[in-house]
Amino acid sequence: MIAGLGLRWILTLVFAAAGAFCLYRCARRPGVSDRVADALHAAMCVGMVTMTWPATMTFARMPQVVLFTAAAGWFAVSAALGLGHGRLPGAHHALMMAGMAWMAFVMPSAMAGMTMSATAMGGEHAGMDMGDAGMTMTGHAPAHVVVVAVLLAAVFLVAGTVWLARAIDHARAVARPGRREAGLVMEGVMSLGMAVMAVAMI
């Protein structure tokens, strides 16, 4: 899905770090609702890593669709009830999970018109021809995929910027930034990561 090898590794490391933080926070939180939220975010990080690499981007595609659709429903209900961090953050989490479910669902049609070749892979995968040349991508995703991807990318870009701005504001207001500030950074990084993944669908 991501053509550049360097960008793939950057995204992989970022998502892995965010997932590790979610698991760490999950183990330290007392509330069941917060633990479920962190566990779902960790699963989302794993899903984003698999989508980053051509060899695994359609791994367990339908189970991912089911999982992230259920996760979107969980966060939507939590936001409606005012649980967790509040309605607006909850809505953002629900949209991220829905975005993950959508990306997993449309991946084959989005990639069907693209041809990719990579030194690390051989054979065909998800409608892509893998050769021994350097990584190249040609073709275009269907129009409906492009429209949704552009909208999601724009929303996640704005949301990620807002989360990071909040993290900076909080860090300036305390003597020693801690887990709360790290959590805000994680939210921003994951949202920006979703924006990058949405752009890659185009």
Task: Explain what you see.
Keywords: Membrane, Transmembrane, Transmembrane helix. InterPro entries: DUF5134. This is DUF5134 domain-containing protein. With 202 residues, the chain is mostly helical. It has one domain. Helix content is 71%, strand content 6%. The strands form two sheets. A two-stranded antiparallel sheet has the order 1-4. Helix 1 packs antiparallel against helix 6, helix 2 packs parallel to helix 6 and helix 3 packs antiparallel against helix 4. It is globular. About 11% of the residues have low confidence.
Give a summary of the structure in a few sentences:
The chain has six helices and four strands.
Overall shape: globular
**How far apart are the termini?**
10 Å
Task: Give helix and strand order, one letter per element, not per position.
Answer: HHHHEEEEHH
Structural class: mainly alpha
Radius of gyration: 17 Å
Question: How much helix, percentage-wise, in residues?
Answer: over 70%
For the largest sheet, list the strands in their spatial order: 1-4
Main β-sheet, in a few words? 2 strands, antiparallel
Number of domains: 1
Given the structure, what is the number of helices?
6
Would you report the number of β strands? Answer: 4
Q: What is the chains' assembly state?
A: single chain
Low-pLDDT sequence parts: 117-138
Average pLDDT rating: 82
Question: In percent terms, what proportion of residues is strand?
Answer: 5-15%
